[in-house]
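Retro notes
What went well: the complex prediction finally ran end to end.
Inputs used:
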Amino acid sequence: MRVGVQGTLLTLAPTGAESAKVDVPALPVTVDEVVATARDCRALGAAVLHLHVRGTDTRPTLDLPRVREVVAAVREITDLVVQLSTGGAVTDPAEARLAVLDAEPDAASLSLGTVNFGRDVFYNPWDLIVELHTQMQQRGIVPEYEVFDLGQLATLSRLLDRHGPPAGGHVHVDLVMGVPGGMPGTTAALAACLPFLPPGATFAATGVGRTSLPVMLAALSAGGHLRVGMEDTLSYAPGEPVRDNAQLVARAAGLARIAQRPPLTPTEARQLLGITRVPTTAEVSR
Ligand code: KMH
Ligand code: ZN
């Protein structure tokens, strides 16, 4: 764990690109819904917002004016770290995924390898990984390295060896577990990843679907951080649909407190992740 930061970094992934609003009415997709979710979850302990944007038709979009609109609206009402997804949807082309960086987020996700994604394929070839990494370095955008399988941690080491440390200098990894095609969401799989983290790196873990709770408990027990939200989990318990994102953040924050590592504030999260962009007055006063 990074010296001086003792709490749990709680990242909220409220929307994702996989679920349809018509199937999941509680999914935040409008600007107002995303802002209200961000505000409520910030109050409950979220410090980072992992953001996939939806268009006015509720479908996933990387349309830059729309992405900018949502980022500005979130910054207007909260001081959350805004981490844009560069993963997008499995159908998004590389150029559009790179162009998301033009919206000037504090941070962005960077997936470290191609992985089967259910019946789809999530493409992350080496050249795209390098391009995202170097563009984020040049723009001062702090990456969160998304790891879907253990071998992708070897890719991370190769990336850092060949292209240098990320913007901000600190390496933070999110182990995305339980994707059908990636590593399973188990304590054993999480423990197997830990020796392969770069020296000094921090990690969070995300358990997709029914692996959410076991992955959260395993991550906390190993000194890791947490990502939760309706991007990854739509059932709160067997047979019980998630009511909203706040329900998932409240549970994660409660477990973090039980682990005696309470949720970090966005300011503490910025310190942990090496984010130097200064929030606007509007963001700070919320
Ligand atoms: N929507 C997935 C295909 C990311 O945000 O960087 C990829 C994803 C990862 O969600
Ligand atoms: Zn995502």
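What we learned: The chain has one domain: 10-285.
What to try next: split runs per interface for comparison.
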